[in-house]
Design a protein that fits this description.
Number of helices: 2
Strand order of the largest sheet: 1-2
Structural class: alpha+beta
Number of strands: 2
Largest sheet: 2 strands, antiparallel
Shape: extended
Strand content: 15-25%
């Protein structure tokens, strides 16, 4: 995320880290500045062209979801784990 700091409107400074000024709570299609979307798209294209491996915390991978939701398909409800 440090690569976004000061470049995109929703992450202007370290104080915005993890919050993104509510941006992720809205639809990601609603960029206030088109250049922010362009920048993110270019970063994704670069990551696809030059993939990198990052260490993963195995404990986080083994975590179980803390809540369940009900997904409705037609008239039937179905329990799904989310998290």
């Amino acid at each position: 995320m440090a690569r976004l700091e000061g470049i995109v409107q929703f992450y202007e400074a370290k104080k915005d880290a993890g919050k993104f000024k509510g941006f992720l709570r809205r639809s990601p299609a609603l960029f206030e500045r088109v250049v922010d979307g362009d920048h993110l798209l270019n970063m994704l294209k670069q990551a696809k062209a030059n993939p990198k491996n990052y260490p993963v915390d195995q404990r986080k991978l083994k975590r179980r979801p803390i809540y369940k939701t009900i997904s409705v398909v037609g008239d039937a409800g179905k329990n799904e784990e989310k998290g």
